[in-house]
Specification:
25% strand; alpha+beta; three-stranded antiparallel beta sheet; 126 residues
Amino acid sequence: MYSSTPRATPIYSTVAEKNGKIHCVDACTTFWAPVLASPADVQAVHASFSAKLSVVKRPDGESQLTLNARPLYTFAEEGAHQLKGDGFTDDFQGRHFVWSAATTSGSTGRSAGPGGPTGQGNRYGY
């Protein structure tokens, strides 16, 4: 379903999951792959970066990396060095998600209203 293999793609979070509460499950993880990590991974990153990284348990029992208590994901609809998910909006299981790129400063990327920065919103094609 998803992998902990590092990828050269941006990582994202959503305010729908503030305080580490996981809402992206099931079909959501088809498009937004959780960034999985162990506590040892977090310790290694803490040695190099001052960002507030941690892990949270997902409903499936896996540990997911968080930044400032927001779970992190990669976006399946983009390749390396693309930023298509920043401002992207979608809905899963009755919950509305607005995705923002995570930055090394610990903040999210550009803010966007419904439909994202390009106004295109959900373009999954289903």
